[in-house]
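debug: dumping io for the single-chain case to check the tokenizer round-trip. Nothing else runs in this session.
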Amino acid sequence: MAGSLRTGSEAGETEEAPPRPTETPEEEMPRVRLTRRQVVAFAVFVFSAVAFLYFVLPKLTDAGETVHRIERGNTWWIVFGVVLESLSFGGYVLLFRSVFVVREHPHSHLERIGWLESYEITMAGLVATRLFAAAGAGGVALTAWALRRSGMEPRLVACRMVAFIVILYVIYAGSLLIDGLGLGTGLFPGGGSFAITYVPAIVAAVLFACAGALTLLPGDIERRMGRSASGSGRLTHWLARATTVPALTASGVRTAFEVIRSRDAGLLGALAWWGFDIAVLWAMFHAFGSPPPFTVIWMAYFVGTLGNLLPLPGGLGGVEGGMIGAFAAFGVNLELSVVAVLSYRAISFWLPTLPGAIAYFQLRRTVARWREDERGDAPAAREAAAESAAAV
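debug: decoded output
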């Protein structure tokens, strides 16, 4: 290997040749490669979905007059909804910094990721999540790529990414559990059947149990499982790679709990991300009529967002249908629900699209600047390595 090989004339000497710097291949920015046919199909789908949601569905539910005269809605409540959505994104940036910019672990990425870079990474990731399907995988891949390019170790990136997702969805599962039990038992106003109250609470309890079980896995689970996967062959190779999944997930869950126990103020960003976004939906009900109890909005919101799991760009169509169906299950006026949900989605889905697209191109320039900095530092690093070898 480089750094330990010696020539034949040096065979009798103990001094090793100085290590030669190796060029590491640059990791390309994740992008979605689409053919012209795919682009056309994507555009047709988005156009058809928007046309159905905003023009056909209102007529089917007798809400056409309200939708086509949306200017009759209370303007101040709509503007307030836009402000609330901006605060939600601010909370996302705050949580990102709390999880990934860890001061007690000095790395080069700490000097590179300031507030502006945090904004670029999170907004670019959010727009990737909004515009492409696969349950947000596009946003996760883009965020992880940017963090690796900043200098953070790949395994640390993966661990912290799992922790970030866990912290976000602790709020999600906790809401389903608390609100579901509260509505089902009558402790919270709003009522609702077993399917729309207790079932989500049961699902949340199972998720918490699974997360707790992961923390009980031993820290060396990857090494233990790796022993059984030792050998050669394609199957053994896949088994070896599969052993990293439970270990990495368990490590991420434990890291999330450690971050939560640290009581860092940035963790409030998770509450802000969900809370302000729910408040947008609440504001839209106020803009067009009398809202149902907030506990109903709370539950319908989280049940509806399960539509993001569907293989649809940004959950477009799935989220709206899920929320409207949940409100119908609670007996909320269908016309009001359609208008409020569509108005909410117009703000939450489309508002970050343009800033996110701009942030995507800004992030490309930022990463290019990091690369230039690395190339500029390379000669100095080689000189230092040569001086160190000469001293030895």
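debug: round-trip ok. The mean pLDDT is 77.
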